[in-house]
Design goal:
Blueprint: H1 13-25, H2 30-37, H3 45-57, E1 61-66, E2 69-74, H4 78-93, H5 98-107, H6 113-127
Antiparallel strand pairs: 1-2
Length: 132
């Protein structure tokens, strides 16, 4: 099946919840995905089937028939979606300045010193600088 071009490259909140299950499980039938979603919040089979079909039309999922069921799989790797979402956030909310996004993040009081040490290590690794 051909993948449709996405007008909006971002998932809605509900679609992201569904996509997270698909990424975690590698995909499955509507029943499989429904079972995982129902661990968090009760949902109707028809609602899940409808949302999965919409996500396939948007290009986030692929499906293939197995027996008498459709098996849905991710069409977009999680890392690719994270990258797209962060670029979108940086562009729309931080005027395309990743430094402003990071500055806001490290200024958040919920970010612990341990998290900041991790961020520093990631930056040092990216910059090829092992010194502190």
């Amino acid at each position: 099946m051909m993948r449709k071009k996405q007008d909006n490259p971002l998932l809605t909140e509900v679609e992201l919840e569904f996509m997270t299950v698909v990424w975690e499980t590698g995909g499955g039938t509507v029943r499989d995905i429904l079972a995982e979603l129902n661990k968090r919040q009760e949902r109707a089979y028809t609602s899940v089937a409808t949302v999965l079909k919409i996500m396939e039309q948007k290009g986030f999922l692929t499906s293939e028939r197995a027996d008498r069921s459709l098996v849905y799989r991710p069409a977009v790797p999680k890392a690719d979606y994270q990258k797209t979402t962060l670029k979108n956030l940086s562009s729309k909310l931080f005027n395309g300045a990743p430094a402003a996004l990071v500055a806001r993040l490290v200024d958040d009081e919920d970010v612990t010193d341990e998290m900041l040490v991790e961020i520093r290590a990631l930056l040092n690794e990216r910059l090829g600088d092992d010194e502190r």
